[in-house]
Amino acid sequence: MDIERDPDGQRYVASDDGREVGELTFAQEAGTLRLLHTKVDEAAEGRGIGGGLARRALDDARRDGLRVDPQCQFVAGWIERHPEYAELVAED
């Protein structure tokens, strides 16, 4: 599985053998990466694609010095299960 950032489309895309199997949409503004929605093809569920998308977005945010606003329930839950990313979450 490959995960790439599509800056023009404001999304991360997961592909498997050249076929898009998932995406995480985002918006970036004022030093914050808002993670909006994660979608994984039904046929590809259970393979860690959503987690891979979340990890890539959070790793990029860390590298770029951004805070994150996990508006997507999946990403918010993923961060709870991976507390090493909790410090990235923007204060309310």
TrEMBL record:
Domain of life of the source: Bacteria
A molecular function (GO) term: acyltransferase activity, transferring groups other than amino-acyl groups
Database matches in SUPFAM superfamilies: Acyl-CoA N-acyltransferases (Nat) (SSF55729)
Domain N-acetyltransferase: 1-92, 4-90
Pfam families: Acetyltransf_CG (PF14542)
InterPro entries per record: Acyl_CoA_acyltransferase (IPR016181), Gcn5-rel_NAT (IPR045057), GNAT_dom (IPR000182), GNAT_YJDJ (IPR031165)
Protein's name according to its UniProt entry: N-acetyltransferase
Organism of derivation: Egicoccus halophilus
